[in-house]
Design the sequence.
């Protein structure tokens, strides 16, 4: 009998994904540009790209990663300068003139060590990883805001992140998806986790998941025209909760099948 697969820390996951990863190259040419993010609640934040490594988010300078899975679509990610163990991801459609911002935050050690049964007793979500979605417009645009979507529900997709790492996703309903590792450092592992879907453009989606066993936030673009993904995973380096791992991920995508339920 084979040994049982064991969950690993996000830092170890990053090491497994790194060799020959299918992530997109860093988007260049943003240096000197400024984008005004007008949030739906009335707040405005100016983002100035100093160079290809740093930007000013308001008055806070941070290191960032930016990619472009399609022309005029920007994926910008950085650690939140005002929130411990947090990150900010901006998905900008410069053609339409709108954006989605995902403010993520990992739980502290006390929250992580609260067991699942206690969370249920206290009426808490099973995952302590947080994700706040904020929508808005870029610069002087009057475009409609992005919306949550159900268009991925029912899909069973295969994602190849590198020559050694393959995962399967099944998008179950508007709140949950299931995943399993077919090959790689998590081979044999599977779970059902909380997730969210936002439609960015035709056949282009922002997919966010929040894991409950090892505190993990995934924020990924899924392009079902180009059949590839790009994004990031945020978690802790190890079990001491003193260091973050915020690493890039990207995959080649394949739709295996689509489940359509008969009317109830």
Sequence:
């Amino acid at each position: 009998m084979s040994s049982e697969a064991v969950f690993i820390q996000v830092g170890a996951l990053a090491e497994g994904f790194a060799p020959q990863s299918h992530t997109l190259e860093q988007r260049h040419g943003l240096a000197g540009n400024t984008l005004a993010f007008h949030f739906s609640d009335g707040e405005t934040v100016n983002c100035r790209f100093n160079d290809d490594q740093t930007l000013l988010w308001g008055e806070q300078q941070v290191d960032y990663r930016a990619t472009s899975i399609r022309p005029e679509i920007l994926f910008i990610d950085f650690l939140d300068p005002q929130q411990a163990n947090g990150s900010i991801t901006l998905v900008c459609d410069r053609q339409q003139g709108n954006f989605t911002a995902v403010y993520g935050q990992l739980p502290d050690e006390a929250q992580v060590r609260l067991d699942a049964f206690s969370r249920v007793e206290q009426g808490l979500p099973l995952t302590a990883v947080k994700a706040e979605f904020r929508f808005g417009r870029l610069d002087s645009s009057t475009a409609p805001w992005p919306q949550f979507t159900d268009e991925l529900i029912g899909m069973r997709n295969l994602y190849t992140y590198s020559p050694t790492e393959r995962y399967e996703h099944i998008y179950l309903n508007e709140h949950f998806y299931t995943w399993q590792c077919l090959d790689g450092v998590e081979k044999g592992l599977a779970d059902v986790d909380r997730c969210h879907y936002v439609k960015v453009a035709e056949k282009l989606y922002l997919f966010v998941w929040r894991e409950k066993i090892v505190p993990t936030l995934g924020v990924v673009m899924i392009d079902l025209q180009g059949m590839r993904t790009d994004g990031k995973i945020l978690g802790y380096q190890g079990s001491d909760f003193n260091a973050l791992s915020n690493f890039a991920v990207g995959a080649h995508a394949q739709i295996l099948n689509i489940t359509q339920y008969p009317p109830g």
About this structure: The chain has a mean pLDDT of 96. The longest strand covers residues 244-258. DSSP finds three helices and 18 strands in the chain.
